[in-house]
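[SOLVED] Need 3D model of a two-part complex

Original post:
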Amino acid sequence: MKIKSTLENYVFVLPAVLIFAVFYIVPFVWVFRYSLHDWDGISPIMNYIGLGNFKEIIQDKIWWNSMLNAGYITLIALTFQNALAFLLAWACDREIRLKNFYRLIFFIPPVLSEVVVGLVWQWILDGNYGLLNHWLVHLGFPNLVRNWLSDPQTALTVVAIVHSWKGFGWGFLIFLAGLQTIPRELYEAARVDGANAWQSFKKITIPLMVPVAVLVAILTILGTMQAFVLIIAMTGGGPAYHTEVPVLRILASMRGSSRFGYACAQGISFGLILVVISFIQYRFSKRARQI
Amino acid sequence: MKTTAYYKTKKITINLVIHLFLLTVAVSCVFPLLWMVSSSLKTQETIFKDTSLIPRVFHFENYYLAWMEGGFGRYFLNSIFYTVSVVVGIIIVASLAAYAFSRLNFPGKNILFYMFMAAMMIPIPGSFVPLYILLNKLHLRNTAPGYILAMINVGLSTSIFLLKTFFDKMPKELEDAARMDGCSKLGIWWHVALPLAKPVLAVVVVFNALTVWNEYVLALIIFDSKPLMPLQVALMTFQGEFITRYPLLMAGLTITALPIIIVYVLMQKYIVKGVTAGAIVG
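Solution:
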């Protein structure tokens, strides 16, 4: 009776565990196995080469360059995107009309797919027929006109800005939720004590928002480092690798050059870097909470 | 002495500046979408010259052409089919597991639960590479079931987490009453637990539907044949073809974006909840 009941309980988790085992654990183990092989994904023979793929990664300039690009986009997302998100949340955290309307609008870009956002912006930024260049000419700045997405000087920054456009709504929501947990009485008390708006912002809002800011920073870094679909839709990694990011390189190793082993090794290297980043941030956020 | 009039003017000015700032950003959020719709109503000839937001003639036939000739009708139905299948699958599989993790006892329960939670924390960039090989070996690549199963797995951990948190807080009395009446465990899950979980199920449905509808890379590597493709991959393929027919592409983009925007506006509460919950655990 007891055994039958336990078996019955296993039935509940069986479908989930089965799907998880096949589609998560097996691929997880395989990544490590394939990373030690030279393999095209089709042929029945896999060539064991030990750490050969990893040695090659160390010297792969395009790979490290793609890492730098992702870092650059992340830096812009951390500063520009999150500052914008915080300012908007702060502006909305008061008795203000249209508050719900703004909240509705700011979260539209995040619910759209990266493909839609990328292709729409690509059309606006088009060098020949794009709306942006058209406006620049009409507003009297013809010297600013350029091929925004195929000019090596602008492509990466433009991609980073569109990424921020798509993403700031997230930070906005989390910041706003954080700001709303600050008890109004604190501000009241500060005002009674003679503090002006700037002082209560500096002494109340900022210290209480540090944990929220750390959370947003972690989500931004992990999310932005791995972003790539938006880039596929906007530039495909070009011009000449200027907007390549790591996941795009992994996809290229797999689909472009059929080097499945190398693609897996790239995935592991990148995954390790991400784990290290989140570990550092975890420690950092613990310390921040103590303050 | 500063008068009340002074403070009043100051307050109005501050409010004005704040609204101006908020409004500018709001316009920047909406404008690209209006431009997308506007471009979808022009023709291949006028689209490069006519830069007005409201075109002189509305070429609604672009939508017909995109739907029929561009194949977006097919892709749209594919996307609907994948989204519904994955969401139904996740609801059943995840709620069964979450119910067991919350209410039932069996050896290895905690290990299994933490395994699902760990999967949310550990990033595996490029996990699509071994998944591609796996589906090939199972002869599931380039098939709808292959994509659906892979996508159920994507949403599983977060959904289990959300549902288990809800079940943990749910009062046990109703389930006890059902058990007294001779209801089986599966019966209790179906007749008692699931109906009570409606609010969190709404979050799970909306959150996962959004993920599946917007998903790109797994669909890209899984599907070779066009008739099976969902919208996101089809849009990229259409855009990459010899001469891009911009009005049709823009119509296709509108067809893809509109359902999401409608669902978002109607179910804003659930989306925001699901997305922030997903973000915070993930």
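Edit: Chain B has a mean pLDDT of 89.
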